[in-house]
Amino acid sequence: MKFLPAPMRRRLQGASGENRAIVRGMVWVAVFLLIAKAVAAAKEMMVAYRYGAGAVVDGYLFVFNLAQWPGGVFASVTGIILIPFLVKLQQERPSEASRLQAALLPFAFLLGTAASLLFGAIMWWAIIHLELGLTAKSQAAALTALPWVAPSIAFAFMGAVLSNWLMSQRRHANTLLEATPAAAIAFCLLVWPIASGQAWGVLPLAVATLIGFALQTLLLVRLCGHPIGFAHLGTIAEHWPALRMAFGIMLLAQIVMNSAGLLDQFFAVRMGEGVLASFSYAQRIMALVLGLTTVVVGRAMLPVFASVGDLRVSFALAQRWAWRFGVLGALCAVALVMTAEWAVMLLFERGAFTAKDTQEVAQILRVLALQLPFYLFGIVLVQWLGAAGKAFWLLMAAIVGFLAKLFGAWMWFDLGGQGLAASTALMYFFTAIMVYLTARHLLRLERVE
């Protein structure tokens, strides 16, 4: 604080407890996230150097991105539902909250193992028997990666539960540990030729993915430091009636939201070799930009919104932060459009990644930047709706956004990766409008009551 200008220091010192909690959480998440994103960027640079934007990366990313879908849905659902529930339970019945935590990890393990087996079987059949648009080389890489990538789903499920528990206590070190899979891949790319004596292929990426997710889960277990026991599984059944309705609706909402990423995979592989890889490289840079804001928003704000009992007070708080992040997103979009080619060149243009690849990825990145103001504005209000228990309205917003994404991807198919990027911006534009109008409508109903 002492290094800040005097007016800013006085304003922060005079802020409400909720605003101070948000800022404190944002600072810790931002610090950890910067480190995690730096590790992820280093990994992407190494992948680009070794593989470029060719068929091997297409095959690996096709399997890996699809494998992230069930884990992403589970993490999003449990985060928005469990964190507010755990915050209240810890305040009212701390011992019961500890029992629930002990039951959550084995439950996630069982559910994640089933999801891993189901995903592996479906994907193996689909890659072999369906015309997915993969080239022969990409198909071979996907089949080689699948046995290693599929089990990572189980670890992703367990990591989601452990991370949500830490965030409900406003502890954010789990953000730092999200760099573990990327660090494992980077390390494996360094030692693979020495340790294995084999030529470069998809195996270094696939094997390191599984090792990274397993190590991340082990570190999270140690960080939580609470007992884990199958004997407490009945605790979940005791609390299920209070969670059932919101969980079901939120599950549908997250399935719809995360299905937008699936659309990108299936559209991209049909647009020609290298399109999926180029789009994914652009998405990785966007993840560096979005992660510094969206992860900070969700992890710092959701517990605070959940702790404010009055919806009108919490909405006023959320609305102020939403407009601030919307303006920040517009500024970031302008900066990213101006520096896209330079950023891609700095991060990726070496080894197998050519100047032609730089041009293609930069063009996609410029279009992806258009999503920033709408995404950042909407993500704050999504946290408010989740904390307020308005899962049904999140589902409606997700459906509107998904339909906009589908329409845009179909209309702009001939534009390749740039068309997919434009459809993403269109999706977040409509989602932001929907969540804002919904929030205002709910506040009007609250005043009537």
Describe the protein in words.
This protein has 449 residues and is mainly alpha-helical. It has helices spanning 6-13, 17-51, 55-92, 94-129, 136-149, 152-168, 173-177, 180-196, 203-224, 234-269, 275-307, 311-348, 355-368, 372-387, 391-411, 417-448. The longest helix has 38 residues, at 55-92. The protein is globular, with a radius of gyration of 22 Å.
Structure described in brief:
The protein has 449 residues and is mostly helical.
Strand percent estimate: under 5%
Order of helices and strands: HHHHHHHHHHHHHHHH
Given helix and strand content, the structural type is mainly alpha
Give the proportion of residues in helices: over 70%
SS field, number of helical segments: 16
Overall average pLDDT? 76
Low-confidence stretches: none
Main sheet overview: none
Envelope shape: globular
The Rg value, from CA coordinates, equals 22 Å
Count all strands and give the number. 0
- End-to-end C-alpha gap: 42 Å
Detail the topology: elements first, then pairings.
Layout: H1 6-13, H2 17-51, H3 55-92, H4 94-129, H5 136-149, H6 152-168, H7 173-177, H8 180-196, H9 203-224, H10 234-269, H11 275-307, H12 311-348, H13 355-368, H14 372-387, H15 391-411, H16 417-448
Helix pairs in contact: 2-8, 2-11, 3-4, 3-5, 3-6, 3-10, 3-11, 4-5, 4-6, 5-9, 6-9, 8-9, 10-15, 11-12, 11-13, 11-14, 11-16, 12-13, 12-14, 13-16, 14-16, 15-16
Relevant terms:
449 residues, mainly alpha, single chain, 16 helices
